[in-house]
Amino acid sequence: MASKPLVTHIYTADPSAHVFDGKLYVYPSHDRETDIQFNDNGDQYDMADYHIISLDKVGGEATDHGVALSVEDVPWVSKQLWAPDCAKSPKDGKYYLYFPARDKDTIFRIGVAVSDSPTGPFKAEPEPIAGSFSIDPASFVDADGKVYLYFGGLWGGQLQCYSSPEGGKFDASKGGPQEPSGEGVVALCPRVGHMKPNMKEFASPPQDVQILDPATGKPILADDHERRFFEAAWMHKKGETYYFSYSTGDTHLISYATGSSPLGPFTYGGTLLEPVVGWTTHHSIVEWDGRWWLFYHDCELSKGVDHLRSVRMREIKYNADGKMVLVEKQ
Asked: Which of 24, 56, 67, 295 is least surrounded, with the fewest CB atoms within 10 Å of its CB?
């Protein structure tokens, strides 16, 4: 069964959940009212700051720690602070908030801001991460201390505007609701970059994250909208298996794939969450207090307003074959 929204005094979306020192922290987007009309470029998602939410126990009252970072705090940003994530450095113990936003040329880049506390406030670097592009950064710290940043999003997220895994030249003519299509055409891949120990730079250029069809062993095709990656990358690990999960966008599913390396390739494993109220779906998965939890959002509280979403949580489990399922049916 889904929980009630974690908070109701503000709208929150795109939850990235982490456990730091036994306490659960959620790094969401902060939705707000706007007169901007709905469009497939996502202009109506006009977020301007971030609030950090924490929980001391399952079912407990959530705490809103207030504004941790705002548009005015970041010199390179013009607008739209979209889905963020946070990682604790295994080297210096500081907290690194990764966030996408449009630069002064309205191109999405990924920034980083640092704090001594998981709740901020965060101080942003004056420039975006060199070589970064698109949206939805998701950080993953592996057991060996290596840090990875996954990212990418189609349509308004601009991933289709780049011609190579490491990005390259931005092609504005491919902006908006466009993506590859056609018989035999392979779907665009999300990206992953290995981070330097300073957590602020890529150690090497980003590369494709391949998602393979289990029946053929070949990449998922572009016209397979039930399974192809659209946005909302997330990485977690259970045992020796890496789980890469994501949104399918216009089919409104949370799907996942598994692999033996954080760099992939990953083999498609199934759907974890069916469509919720609202167009977007975005999630995270975390182990907390001996149980596994899915954090996600929907638009029930706003009565279906797509850009006014609320974060919820529900328990998941793993079958003997490693497949993820909801403990209680949706």
From this structure: 56
Q: Which residues of 233-257 are buried (b: 16+ CB within 10 A; e: fewer)?
A: bbbbeeeeebbbbbbbbebbbbbbb
Match 């101080």 to its residue by tokens.
123
| Burial of 222 from C-beta contacts in 10 A (0-12 / 13-18 / 19+) | middle
pLDDT of 229 higher than 80: yes
Residue 227: pLDDT band by 50, 70, 90 thresholds?
Answer: very high
38, 307 in Cβ contact below 8 A?
yes
Annotation says 231 is catalytic: yes
Alpha carbon 213 to its chain's center: 22
Active-site option among 31, 136, 208, 231? 231
Q: CA-to-CA distance for 152 and 192, rounded, in angstroms?
A: 9
Taking only the tens place, the pLDDT of each residue in 166-223 is: 999 999 999 999 999 999 999 999 999 999 999 999 999 999 999 999 999 999 999 9
**Residue 240 bears catalytic tag:** no
Candidates 14, 31, 136, 298; catalytic one: 14
Only one residue has tokens 């592996």, namely 142
CA atoms within a 13 Å half-sphere pointing along the CA-CB vector of 128: 22
